[in-house]
Q: What sequence folds into this?
């Protein structure tokens, strides 16, 4: 169950509204690496968590934090849209810079939302919830969360570099710090789950003797000329999960050319396929 | 540039066609954790790789492998659909089991594809390419790839547990082994990039003194009653990236209640908002 | 800013797990009339609210409530999936009823989520956030919310009629009651905003003398034979907004056949179009 | 069955083509509040209408009208795209205003449609038909239609305010007038269905004694500090549907912390979850 | 401008309602090869038609026909859903066949639409308007229409083969006949536009001397071993457009290994990429 | 099975990076007429090909070619994004042209991909795999492929006309030539399958006596005034498939006004519908 106090988690100040930056900030709300994604991902992972209940609490607690981040960014978008022109013609005619700004804003923020934030990315593409990864496997979920916070922090630093507004830089420096913590937090959870050698290969509940083990630690080459592929840590030494030795080798097709045979009558194929 | 030899990477045998299992296999083709996703993700990461060119080669080489996995699975789907009924009425009337099977297949595999595979998941939802994570940051990409191979291996083991067909189990044991390798491979690449202390927090090119550092390693609590959140490795000790100490504390709102003020004239709001 | 206490807003009991009902419940989570939609819709309307701040508080308060409804339903889905078969073959062979159940469940709940809820509808289609209506006009938003709670309550009553489980019926009777309240609540807000005569036509800030007023209260007929269209309250008497009189009349085309002329050179058209 | 006469319902004149305004007009075609949506929504509601057949006729008649509105807007988009530059370089180099215009147009209108309209919104996002609300409940459908015409009229007034072109203003003043009528028309239909006290809560066919009635007219508070939520018409007095009295109270969790227990073997979870 | 007479274009009879067939029919409404697609495709092609106005008339006339087909199929879906069970438990317990039927229906048709048709495919995936191909090139549009009617007729014959209901077979035999006509109609339009030698390669307005002509009629081989690809009409003889001679040859890479160099500072890459 | 040699199929040169042209090129990667679409379409058609295996080889060979085209275009996008500004404020203030460019780029290419290509179209909309047409009918597939290459070539010529860069023009002249070949190639395959009279109407395996033949070659008129529709090759003479004679006639409704009757109890309708 959730509660609110109607206040902002961290101050949101905009010294000089910038409609173009509003558009860029939309990526941090509704982009696939944005805050809706992490809030909902942690929420659904929590709802489906089985096993030690402390992971449910950890996930739900952080979901609550991320909901507040959406709120901060949505407020920042609306404040940056203050001052956006509402009419096309004059602006373009009189002021190329204003025209560029107008040309660059996401028109839906004006047309559909009346100068407010929307759950869309910087191109106006709505967020779709297929990006909520909640696998039922706690280690895979932690790995997905490290990834989400990594792409989220990259985005936040790009936004930080893009703006000069001190208020926006301050807000982003807070979000970047939280991404630092969250990357570390999910890696810490992975460490509790056994780390590289205990948790991997994910899922660790499947008996490895049932996999085709001669391919489990082989770096296969798919070079057209049959040469060995680019070497690296992945082609020699002990595997990262500690359960095998990396080897490297070119691959040959092990199966024949497939042939599905003729089509069935009444299946809508051409006569020539029957 | 790509080449083909029209052969299968690994043999695909189906002893007893099972249209319901065909539907389940579709998840491994067009699900968000399926093979289209990894093939295209590694491909686009390769195309945008900057820095040491060996990562481009590593990624493109594995993209070629994954294309062959799609081909194997698409062949398996078509082979499992052999024997699916083409007519509704009789089956249901005469044979409840057949009726159940018919009720359970993805009708589009019949209606749109003529008993062949489609780039959709097990519910017939088409794959959408927003799931291709290629961030321009090589460490974040490697993390995304570990995640992709983890959810992919979970899916493959669930499919393995779902079927009794020896041919299908054999094919899946190959794919599971490759997922083992690929999890290890991307972790090995992350190790080359510095591992937990060198690569994190991602991106490692942003100066940490510019983030709001008092929040960088703090596990904040969002419990309604102000209590401390669930403790764990994430709430004490050195941070996983080696750059700070975890602390734990309840959070208070640091910002005020936001107030956007009145709406602008001509912005389509109600009079009461102006 | 949001908080949680990790508890459920209302008890969720399942006496006999029913995987098919789990699939139906998914509609109440990720359907276009489901709880993610209302939670996020009220949240975004709150974030963009301009004018009297009490509407922001009203919206954010109810958003917090709806987040708890998602949590309840996600828990109910996971509890109903307990007992779902993990393997296809035996079930179908031995037990047509079990086979029917297996054929009917949303396979992604098993394959992608490990028997947990997902942010998808009853066909496994992910929720997409374009359904978050937040127009920047408070009256239109209230109207959208009445609609959302109406379709939501219809869905909840259909689910109530579909199940025999006392625990599920109890949970749904709570959600239905809340939908009753929320329909009334948003209508009450609309009453505060002037009701039918004060708030309509929405937006009420556009000067009606600028619309083509001879068409503002005319029920136009588009019957092929030029006859009058079906009469009703909408074809005579004072208009509902109190600002005009309904009239009814067949429509004639007022514009000519459009002609865009030839295509531009270099625009990729055929030569015959130039 | 439908007919056409190839003529426009209302004249479409463009005095000075404006590619940027073409982009804005796309929102009125393919936006979620646009004309495709209402045309198809009324059409599908008509096709599924049960009960008094006059509602079917009313809906189908208005669907025919809206199809003509799409045609008008598509013509307006094509006329505004006349004069759009076909080449990038020179324009930007020589003419910042032209460059701004070019930067602002939806490139797909040129690249995919050859300077014609598309069924997409102002950001080039295709309309998706999940926005067609046709619930099988006639009152909910009427409420959805009031909402659709409200957001549609807001959009049309924003477009009216955005342009100076007399032809475009004239066309929009016609569409705004029709939105006025349609808002009133669907409210009139709702009045025929019993109005606030007769039609609500929707659906009115579900026995209210089966809902958990102590929550049916209670304005619950979800404030973190347990304080009462923002008061208003919704917190006291008779409910709008005339069937209860509004009360206001803070909410406590009525359910426990959920615990799904361990994961099932073979479900793809980690060993630690079993 | 469009008109209606509220009647059906062709009779729709269902002797024995079949909810499973209702689900299959949904593919013909909202599938990518369904009637919404052709209706809207011809409509948008008409709206953007430039050049000889008779093509606009042809397209708009057929768009009106297809709208009537959607209406027929939506009626057929609703009629087939009569008799679908509204409750899960009893049906499955008492009647495996009924259970299979229930397991097989698209639950949204019940839960969201109250036993009526929806603009979705047979898996409940909503139609999205990106499938409306209207290129601004009249020959490409005619080719797209031949394709649309081909996949549409394949679907209709599969549905015809799937059902035993005489009413449904009669309705489908009408739709199949119309698909026959429409395939021929669009090919006839293509013939008016010059046929294979006059219209191709599309667009015929681009000067062929500006294309890299040594590759214009070469069947290139991408076989891993450098062998020639599978021969056929496409590898020898005059090209179908009459403007060249087919030749066949293995392909070699003509470009180098690409190298994008280091990443830019401040672009969010890892230090190792700079 | 697929192989790569890490080289480019054709040289990609960019003399002067142009971020706006990068955005336009995205349409050729992730647009519905782009290279991902043809690569995956041919690939899935190959995987499901039944009948003469030479069509499988033809399709898979060309799929391999198209994968190389995606690689070329993705490289071109990244090269054109070199030099894109990373910060908003200064550019707009100092340089209207730069501002226009910045306003015009797809921000996701910077924010999500770090100045690299993405599988999205020129508006940042991700490609979705529902556009992969693979019908199980080889003739319909060939027709779909002619269409795909036609819209692809139109797009490529529009891009060619849009840029002045010699490197980009050279690359595009290669892609245009390949589209010429591929249009011819698929028409050649259609010729092998019997051409217009042998392959049509598609599917040619359905007995034409089972279609309602009086409508098979009739050009029906849906003009509101009952007049004949626009004449052409489609209204007289032998049909293109050689199996009938075109006739032209106005259409009358052959069915009655549909009436679905009252709604079922418990189906969530209003009382007035029961």
A:
């Amino acid at each position: 169950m959730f509660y609110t106090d109607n206040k902002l988690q961290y101050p949101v100040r905009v010294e000089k509204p910038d409609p173009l930056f509003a558009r860029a900030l939309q990526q941090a709300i509704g982009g696939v690496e944005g805050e809706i994604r992490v809030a909902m991902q942690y929420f659904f992972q929590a709802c489906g968590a089985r096993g030690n209940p402390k992971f449910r609490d950890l996930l739900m607690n952080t979901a609550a934090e991320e909901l507040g981040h959406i709120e901060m960014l949505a407020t920042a978008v609306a404040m940056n849209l203050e001052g956006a022109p509402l009419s096309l013609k004059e602006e373009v005619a009189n002021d190329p810079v204003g025209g560029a700004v107008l040309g660059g804003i996401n028109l839906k923020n004006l047309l559909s939302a009346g100068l407010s934030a929307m759950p869309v990315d910087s191109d106006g593409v709505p967020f779709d919830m297929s990006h909520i990864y909640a696998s039922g496997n706690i280690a895979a979920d932690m790995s997905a969360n490290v990834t989400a916070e990594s792409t989220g922090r990259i985005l936040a630093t790009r936004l930080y570099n893009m703006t000069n507004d001190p208020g926006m830089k301050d807000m982003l420096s807070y979000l970047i710090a939280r991404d630092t913590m969250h990357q570390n937090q999910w890696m810490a959870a992975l460490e509790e789950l056994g780390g590289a050698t205990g948790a991997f290969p994910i899922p660790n509940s499947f008996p490895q003797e049932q996999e085709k083990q001669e391919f489990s630690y082989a770096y296969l080459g798919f070079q057209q000329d049959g040469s060995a592929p680019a070497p690296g840590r992945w082609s020699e030494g002990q595997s990262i999960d500690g359960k095998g030795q990396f080897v490297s080798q070119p691959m040959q097709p092990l199966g024949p050319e497939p042939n599905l045979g003729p089509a069935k009558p009444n299946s809508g194929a051409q006569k020539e396929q029957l």
